From TrEMBL:
Catalytic activity of the protein: di-trans,octa-cis-undecaprenyl diphosphate + H2O = di-trans,octa-cis-undecaprenyl phosphate + phosphate + H(+)
Protein name: Undecaprenyl-diphosphatase
Enzyme class: hydrolase
Function noted in UniProt: Catalyzes the dephosphorylation of undecaprenyl diphosphate (UPP). Confers resistance to bacitracin.
């Protein structure tokens, strides 16, 4: 893999990790249709670190307040409560990710699966936009909400679902404002991204792969794209709907299906 390819994959990973369009789905499609294979396990680990750095840096005040709330006699009750809810919402995704890791890496790695999940979650987005009341803030988040969003996040083990997309959709159905749904989804991404990086990093320490010179460029690209997308999307959702992302997913699903059918008929 060349450095330009590494930068392209880093930008793709960083942007689609936080946009509700599926990073795993886009990377799989890039591999299938463009022949852009990843840079191995070391590259995957570093891309995760790039996106993790983006979400930690952007929400540095929130993370600091939550860490401070762990110290007896310091911090606000709300920050301590938010941290507890993030832990609760992380559990289903961590469990399912651990149990179904092999299935996700083999059977579910199919462009047809990606096409189906892109369209399916796109339709859910449109449904949530149509029926949700969207008047709740994170201050109203409770244990039931965290459990529902956490269970939704577990579905992201399937390529094309999108971790951010499915958690934002669940939050919309629960009545949260769009920007608040995105904010909780982004905060929730940190432990999952860190867990994925540690899981792959453990394999890396066992000697299954080694880093190449292009790794730094891909990591930097993932960080820059991730940070920019978080900042832009939170501002965008304060005034706009999720409709463009839903339509994009559905149109892309149609294009992928058409290309696959054309390829099988050729």
């Amino acid at each position: 893999m060349t450095s330009p390819e590494a930068v392209f994959l880093g930008l793709l990973q960083g942007a689609t990790e936080f946009l509700p369009v599926s990073s795993s789905g886009h990377l799989l499609l890039a591999e299938h249709f463009l022949g852009l294979a990843g840079g191995g396990l070391a590259f995957d680990v570093m891309l995760h670190l790039g996106t993790l750095a983006a979400v930690l840096l952007y929400f540095r005040r929130e993370w600091w307040h939550m860490a401070e709330a762990l110290v007896p006699g310091r911090g606000a009750t709300g920050d301590r409560r938010l941290l507890a809810l993030l832990v609760l919402a992380t559990i289903p995704g961590g469990v399912f990710g651990y149990l179904l890791d092999d299935l996700a890496a083999t059977t579910l790695r199919s462009p047809w699966v990606v096409a189906a999940t892109l369209a399916g979650v796109g339709a859910l987005f449109l449904a949530a936009e149509g029926v949700a009341r969207r008047d709740r803030t994170l201050a109203a988040l409770d244990w039931r909400d965290a459990a529902v969003i956490g269970l939704a996040q577990a579905l992201a083990i399937v390529p094309g679902v999108s971790r951010s997309g499915i958690t934002m959709t669940a939050a919309l159905f629960l009545g949260f404002r769009r920007a608040e749904a995105a904010r909780f989804s982004f905060l929730l991404s940190a432990p999952i991204i860190a867990g994925a990086g540690l899981h792959e990093g453990h394999k890396l320490l066992n000697g299954t792969a080694g880093p190449g010179p292009e790794v730094l460029w891909g990591t930097l690209a993932a960080f820059v794209a991730g940070y920019a997308v978080i900042s832009w999307l939170l501002a965008y959702l304060a005034r706009h709907t999720f409709h463009p992302f839903a339509y994009y997913r559905i149109v892309l699903a149609g294009v992928v299906a058409a290309l696959l059918l054309w390829g099988s008929a050729a």
